[in-house]
Amino acid sequence: MIALALAGAGATLAAAEHQPQYRYVVLGYVTDAKGHPLRGQPVKLVRNKTGFSYRGETDATGFYVIVGRLGDESAGERLTLTVGRVVTELGARFDPRNHSTERGTRIDIVADRAVDRPAWFPSSLKRFLSSR
User: Fold this and answer.
1) How many domains does the chain have?
2) Most buried among 29, 31, 59, 109, using CB within 10 Å?
3) How far apart are the C-alpha atoms of 75 and 90, rounded to whole Å?
4) Beta-bridge partner residues of 110
5) What's the pTM?
């Protein structure tokens, strides 16, 4: 179900990525200093180890979703997220033994500042998937 919804959102998924242990999702909202959503902002997630990048763009509400291909061996791997002019580094935080829970984080960009909100990831992903 998630693979179909994410594929419909413009994410490119390999055949095996229909299972949570093969992907890492980074999502969030991009707003200006007054809280207005910024549409059409380029978003790029780079695996620092390999240099491979995943690209996307914010929608009309300033929301973005990037699906990276990371397996169990990638726990703790460093990633670089670039949204517009904002660049931030993050670690892929997940339990490699857990193959049922979606892996990812939420990072909002608020007035040129990255705000990491990992606790909001599950509810944000659920809301996104239910809107598809």
Assistant:
1) 1
2) 109
3) 12
4) 31
5) 0.86
